[in-house]
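#structure-requests
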Amino acid sequence: MTPTLVIGGASDSLLPGNLMDYQLLGNATLHVFSRVGHGVPREVPAAFSRVLADFMEHGVVNAATIQARLAEAKATAAG
C-alpha cells in the first residue's frame, strides 16, 4: 500500500510488463509518456520532472483518491 508512481514510455517494449505490475499495486499512479521509449528521464527530462514533482506534492491520483478528496471537500463545505 506504499504510494507508488509507475512511469512508462508508450514506445517501450517493457510497457506491457509495467502495466501488469501497476495492476498489482494497491496504491499507485500510472503515467505513460506518449512517443517515448525506455529512457523517459533522458528523452523528456522536463516533462518527467513535472510528473515527479506533481506526485511528490499530491501523492497518488486515481479514481479512489479523487473520490475521497471530493467527499472530503463536500464534508468541509457542509460545515
